[in-house]
Amino acid sequence: MRYTRAGKHRKDTSRGDGFISFIAAISMVGIALSVALLITVLSVMNGFQKEVRDRMLSVLAHIEISGADGPIGDWKALAQDALRNPHVRSVAPYVSGKVLFTSGDRFTGAILRGVLPAEEPKVSDLGREMIAGKLDDLTPGRFGIVLGAELARGFGVHVGDKVTVAAPEGQVTPAGLIPRFRQFTVVGIFESGHYEYDSTLALANIDDTARLFRQDGYTGIRLKLDDMDRAPEVSRELARSLPGDLMIVDWTQQNRNWFSAVKTEKTMMFVILTLIIAVAAFNLVSSLVMTVTDKQADIAILRTLGAAPQSVMRIFIIQGAIIGLVGCIAGVILGLALAYNVGDIVAGIEQLFGVTLIPKDVYFISKLPSDVRFPDVTTIACVSIVLSLLATLYPSWRASRVQPAEALRYE
């Protein structure tokens, strides 16, 4: 502890003890700031990932089960079999297919999903994301349709307008293959905040959709679980327990490329920001080397009194460990404080300087998200402590190699 506060225990600071103490403080502050930065950045990345994931799952089900070679048979029987799994909370049927939307001189490809308005809210949050109309307006036989906000904006349509939907499977006539067209009335618009779904997804009544696709039976069923993180595990269990030739896909498989990209980005960010901790640890090396050089006479006296090289080495390892541990603890406290309040801090900066760092019309959020995960915090703390301990090895080894006769020759 006295070596950590070099120069504070005696009046003579002519040998640069105050500067050594200053370097030790800089090393401690550097470790604290790097740890806090890493915790804050990873928490914000986790927050954005959670925000996007939640918006995806407001549209997607946790698990989708469909027939491998065509529509399923009795969806209620299949639903009862799926509900025997203790993690399955609710089930809803669906019909899905690719279609071509046209309105005036505009056209685009999209996904048309047929749903039962009474069952769909059990597996998705689309009912709560309606900005016009409601899902209950999708009554069978009326060919009503609910469009994503971006899809409706692209066509310039509103509730009550007409859109024409063309199914890819046409009907054979003497004149050749003619696509099947059906005019739908817009009865609602939803906005999930996820551009991919808001611009490519439309909902219709399940019976009207099946008629458009000329499909006997439903495409499959969609499941909601008590814990979405169990989706891969539950999908494997259902594959073993459900009868028939079925395709079972969970939400992680439907967005595998996106989640893989986010995982890679998070890993690379962790590696890059860990290098900042390494830089702070190198400052610790220089601080200890200067301390060893300054304390050579003290080390020599300890050696003449019988101290073993290992004891001398242990002194400087403990000194470096104290600096690293204090810096790590301070960094964790500061990082958690920043991570839990980063949204308010950014909002305060925006208000103070009159700037918009998070445009709501771009990100569909008004506050910077943050999701603190304590396994990440533990990993960061352990990495910083390990790097600090590694930084002490060379200076401590140099201290243990000091020869008393050489160090005391000019004392």
Provide a quick synopsis of the model.
The chain is 52% helix and 20% strand.
Describe the structure.
This protein is α+β, with helices and mostly antiparallel strands and 411 residues long. The chain has 2 domains: 190 residues, no CATH class; 194 residues, no CATH class. It contains 13 helices and 10 strands. A 6-stranded mixed β-barrel has the order 2-3-8-5-7-6. A hairpin with a 2-residue loop joins β2 and β3. α1 packs across α10, α1 packs antiparallel against α12 and α8 crosses α10.
Main sheet: which strands, in order across? 2-3-8-5-7-6
Number of helices: 13
The averaged pLDDT comes out at 85
Q: Report the biggest beta sheet as strand number plus sense, adding barrel if it closes.
A: 6 strands, mixed, barrel
Question: In terms of per-residue confidence, which ranges show pLDDT below 50 for 5 or more consecutive residues?
Answer: 6-15
Structural class: alpha+beta
Q: State Rg.
A: 32 Å
How big a fraction of the residues is strand?
A: 15-25%
Tally of extended strands? 10
Question: How many discrete domains?
Answer: 2
Shape verdict: elongated
Portion in helices: 40-55%
First-residue to last-residue Cα separation:
24 Å
Order of helices and strands: HEHEEEEHEEHEHEHEHHHHHHH
